Automatic annotation (TrEMBL):
Domain Ion transport per the UniProt entry, residue ranges: 37-75
Segments crossing the lipid bilayer: 46-71
Keyword vocabulary terms for this entry: Membrane, Transmembrane, Transmembrane helix
Keyword Coiled coil: no
Protein location: Membrane
Keyword Transmembrane helix part of the UniProt annotation: yes
Protein name: Ion_trans domain-containing protein
Lineage: Eukaryota, Metazoa, Spiralia, Lophotrochozoa, Platyhelminthes
Length: 168
């Protein structure tokens, strides 16, 4: 019975036999393993790769750390702005120190953002013929994509209900 495996073992003229003579390049130059230049070259190559890898990894990790630090700072700034500024009128918490209302009461009662959102939804769901003059004007501002500051100033009419002595 003829088998390819048996034939390849007995056939020394196989085309793949040249690959089995040397397993690596180092086997070709085995006499250079004890040479001083081989040792220097090995140390040089290893130190080059270690230094390059360390520098590149430090650059990559530095960019990642800086990006997360910037995101964390942006989040802290946003939280500070939300906690200490009224998003409707823009007044700081310290402006309410000499007022008869607290900042939290002002934000929750006088300028509750959800009331404005409900009003915008109300304008969107109500027929145009049933709107009043002010509602038509505000609806037009919203549909024309006017800046939020213009719409809010129209809503508040440059006044705060509980703070007559403080201006915008």
């Amino acid at each position: 019975m003829y088998s390819y495996a048996n034939n390849s073992i007995h056939n020394n003229n196989n085309n793949n036999s040249c690959y089995h003579r040397h397993s690596s390049i180092c086997d070709l130059h085995s006499s250079h393993k004890t040479d001083a230049s081989f040792l220097f070259r090995t140390i040089y190559d290893l130190s080059f790769f270690v230094i390059v890898i360390v520098i590149i990894l430090n650059l990559i990790f530095g960019v990642i750390v800086d990006t997360f630090a910037a995101l964390r700072q942006e989040k802290q700034n946003s939280e500070e702005l939300n906690k200490n500024h009224c998003c409707v009128c823009g007044l700081h918490r310290s402006a309410f120190d000499h007022s008869n209302t607290s900042f939290d009461e002002h934000v929750e009662v006088d300028h509750n953002v959800w009331h404005y959102i409900y009003f915008i939804i109300y304008l969107r769901t109500k027929l145009t013929d049933d709107l009043t003059g002010l509602e038509i004007y505000i609806d037009k501002l919203i549909k024309d994509c006017q800046p939020l500051k213009v719409i809010i100033c129209t809503f508040t009419l440059q006044r705060r209900m509980a703070m007559i002595n403080i201006r915008c």
